[in-house]
Amino acid sequence: MKLWLTLGAVLLAAPALAQDNPLQPSPTWDDLRVSVIGLDNEPPVDPGVLDLDAPMRAHEAAIVPIHLTQPADAPAVEALTLVIDENPAPVAAEYTFGDSLMPLDFEVRVRVDSYSDVRAIATQADGATVMAGRFVKAAGGCSAPAGKDMAAVESTMGQMRWRTAQDGDRTIGTLMIRHPNFSGLQRDQVTLLNIPAHFIDRLEVRQGDDLLFTMAAGISVSEDPVFRFAYDPNGQPVHVHVEDTEGNVWDQTFTAVSG
């Protein structure tokens, strides 16, 4: 419990990590933009629509906090792709967001494998795209040793916790999921053999029937992922659906207000 509270506190503190570390010229991105993301043109960078905050130099490359925000009057974002240019699998996650998350205030932790731009490409309701990002100095995040031994992984995988706090008229939800999110690039510290990739690849969070957000993820989301987000509550219970690459499925429902 203490560990999860600590991890949640790291996310809550993320805005204080803001630095003047704008996106850098990236030949890797020039290729990814066309071949992977499918964009012929560079999306505009407009903090009046979307901003991404990340530390200039990561304290821990396997747990880099990413904070996505919008001004109060910004147009709604329906979908967003999070890209870490220099990671082995650059597309870290793809999100869809429900209306109650607008304007966006969303945090997640990721692995960064080498000095890289971390960018979000968002799609608005009218189909227009906008980009935000930061250059992060980090190394080895995708191959960093797992934080728990294999026995602990097996005994706790799929456990979830949910807590809420009020911020004016909005609720701040924090969702914590126990999962090693093995990247396939890590070694078992006992056998020294590579641990096969095994990670959460599907996540859906709803309040009642209303969508909060979905995530389709790759290997770059951190171990024991934590998601912190602001939303407009409707009083209904929050339901979380999780799937991983080994076919495991977990479902849990939380009361609308939970400590």
Structure characteristics:
259 residues; mainly beta; Immunoglobulin-like; eight-stranded antiparallel beta sheet; 3 helices; Quinoprotein dehydrogenase-associated SoxYZ-like carrier; SoxZ_dom; Fuse-rel_SoxYZ; SoxY_sf; signal
Fold and architecture overview:
- Residues 46-142 form the Ig-like SoxY domain.
- Residues 163-254 form the Sulphur oxidation protein SoxZ domain.
- It comes from Paracoccus rhizosphaerae.
- This is Quinoprotein dehydrogenase-associated SoxYZ-like carrier.
- Keywords: Signal.
- By secondary structure, the chain is mainly β.
- It has one domain: Immunoglobulin-like (Sandwich), CATH 2.60.40.2470.
- The protein contains three helices and 14 strands.
- Strands 7-6-3-4-11-10-13-14 form an eight-stranded antiparallel sheet, with no helix packed on it. Strands 1-2-5-12-9-8 form a six-stranded antiparallel sheet, with helices on one face.
TL;DR?
The protein has helices at residues 2-12, 27-35, 150-156, and strands at 51-53, 64-69, 77-84, 91-97, 105-110, 116-124, 129-136, 160-167, 170-177, 200-207, 210-217, 226-231, 238-244, 249-254. It has 259 residues and is mostly beta strands. Pfam families: SoxY, SoxZ.
